[in-house]
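We recall that each integer encodes one residue's backbone shape. We quote one record:
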Amino acid sequence: MVRIQKGIAGALTPFGILARFRAGRHSGQGMVEYALILVLVSIVVIVILLTMGHQIANVFSNVAAALGFSGCNPGPGGGSC
């Protein structure tokens, strides 16, 4: 029986067989790559926060002061500041 193959893999049969073989062999590779990307992004964020943390805190303090927040939190009992 003649089987009709579709797509680029069908047109380039030897390459299609190789691609299917490699795809089956590396089925868990995608999850490992996502984990490595997540670790890399986490390291970059930590380094940025360590180097620029004080500047970022100053920006938020300036914004809070401009909006009129004093930083006083009397709590649920309604104490004084």
